[in-house]
Design goal:
single chain; 455 residues; Neutral Protease, domain 2; Jelly Rolls; 10 helices
Length: 455
């Protein structure tokens, strides 16, 4: 809780309204928000392992080294890799860095010559999948956790298409996250790098697959991704930018990474990652008079209007995902079958969401709906009843939030004439324990619910 209060002070001073400016200055410790001290109540490290999963390939295994003339990028490869693949990777990296520079995002941290120069190093390794970025295990004497990095990825081929450029942009995005906070949780890092890669190197093939997989499992945690694959969680930082951003895209998430960074004690086997990105977001929302639970519910509603269900009023430019962007509904309940009591096919993880469609076709004029939801302790669920017109657009909503400590909400919805249906949107905010809120570094059991709807 002490850490949350300190973060709250930073958030009050910065606020999400100015976080984009802070992120743009988070390059070399200029005027960015100061790192928050580790909480005295939780001295033990809380993040992932400090030791990287692998070391840099030895120079003898990658004797080919080519560097860009216009950007701080070097590509290393075995002699068996075709020179065209090396040159293509350099070109992709140059374009990615140019895009990140245009967005005023910080470049990867200099490695002080670990790869033969201070340039960022990409190692082409046949068979490497997925493309992965690793931190350098090197003491830097910094006042907070940040590290240089390198990336290992497969050489591009003639059939790679836009995915090769996307892989390079994703790898560099990972390295940028390690510059901002070396101890950032894997899920937040994946969310960030997926989003900025989609900005720097758009690739519809990869994005459609990632969004489709993510929308098929809305019950999973938002920050559940890992590794170098594009993750559909890119929708969340997109949502944050549209909701709070005043600068370039990516600035809000970059600022959250910057203000949640810590200093891990020397010799520790784990990163100190408390507070984390969600703590930063929670404290900032509190400073603005809102809550993280309400923000997660708003995002869950926006997520229902992605792809071919887009109404143009929630997230911009998401209609392009088509049917691949449609979130999975647990149930579709015709009005004529009410009353009904239903449960989800799988429990919902903290920050995950769930959806039930109530079809109003054939509902009599002046009809109303009564909704009730019950769930398990210690989960904290919030629900929104979203009215949808015949064009598929939201025309109103009623939010149902239980008082603290209770596990049941009820609402009666009127004014249903002319509507196509009602979307019941649920969001799991985590634990009701205010002294131990949701932490992405700690495994938490998912929880189920029961929804009852009757006319």
């Amino acid at each position: 809780m002490r850490a949350a209060r300190r973060l709250g002070a930073v958030a009050c001073a910065a606020g999400l309204s100015v976080l984009p400016t802070a992120a743009a200055r988070a390059d070399d410790g200029g005027a960015a928000p100061a790192p928050v001290e580790a909480p005295a109540e939780a001295p033990l490290p809380t993040g992932g392992e400090v030791a990287p999963a692998r070391e840099r390939p030895p120079p003898a295994s990658v004797p080919v080294r080519a560097c860009s003339f216009s950007a701080p990028i070097c590509v290393h490869a075995p002699r068996a890799v075709h020179p065209a693949a090396v040159l293509a990777t350099i070109a992709d990296a140059e374009r990615a860095l140019a895009a990140y520079d245009a967005l005023r995002l910080p470049r990867p941290l200099s490695d002080d010559g670990l790869g033969g120069s201070s340039d960022y190093d990409l190692y082409l390794e046949p068979g490497a999948a997925p493309p992965t970025t690793f931190a350098d295990l090197a003491a830097r004497g910094e006042p907070f956790d940040r590290l240089s990095a390198f990336s290992v990825l497969a050489p591009p081929t003639a059939r790679s298409g836009c995915e090769a450029a996307r892989d390079v942009a994703h790898a560099i995005g990972d390295a940028m996250a390690l510059r901002l906070d070396a101890g950032v949780e894997a899920g937040a890092r994946s969310m960030w790098s997926s989003y900025v890669a989609s900005l720097a190197a758009p690739c519809s093939v990869a994005e459609l697959a990632a969004i489709d997989a993510w929308q098929r499992a809305p019950d999973r945690a938002i920050a559940g991704g890992s590794g170098g694959r594009l993750d559909g969680s890119l929708l969340f930082p997109m949502f944050l930018d549209e909701r709070f951003g005043e600068g370039a895209p990516g600035a809000v998430m970059a600022s959250l990474l910057a203000i949640s960074r810590q200093k891990t004690a020397p010799g520790s086997f784990q990163w100190q990652n408390e507070p984390d990105v969600f703590d930063a977001l929670r404290a900032t929302r509190k400073a603005q008079g809102g809550t993280l639970d309400a923000l997660l519910l708003d995002f869950a509603v926006a997520r229902a209007f992605v792809g071919s269900r887009s109404d143009g009023g929630h997230l911009a430019d998401v209609a392009r995902f088509g049917d691949a962007g449609r979130v999975r509904f647990e149930w579709s309940l015709p009005f004529s079958t009410l009353p009904r009591r239903v449960a989800p096919s799988a429990p919902v993880e903290p920050t995950g969401s769930t959806y039930v469609w109530i079809d109003l076709a054939g509902a009599p004029k002046g009809a109303s709906l009564t909704f009730a939801a019950d769930w398990e302790l210690p989960a904290v669920f919030s629900f929104a009843l979203v009215k949808v017109d015949a064009k598929g657009a939201e025309v109103g909503r009623s939010v149902a939030v239980a008082p603290h400590g209770q596990t049941r909400v009820e609402r009666t919805l009127v004014g249903l004439d002319g509507l196509a249906g009602v979307v019941v949107v649920g969001s799991n905010g985590g634990s009701m324990d205010r002294g131990h809120p949701y932490d992405p570094d700690e495994p938490v059991a998912p929880h189920g619910y029961l929804v009852t709807v009757y006319p």
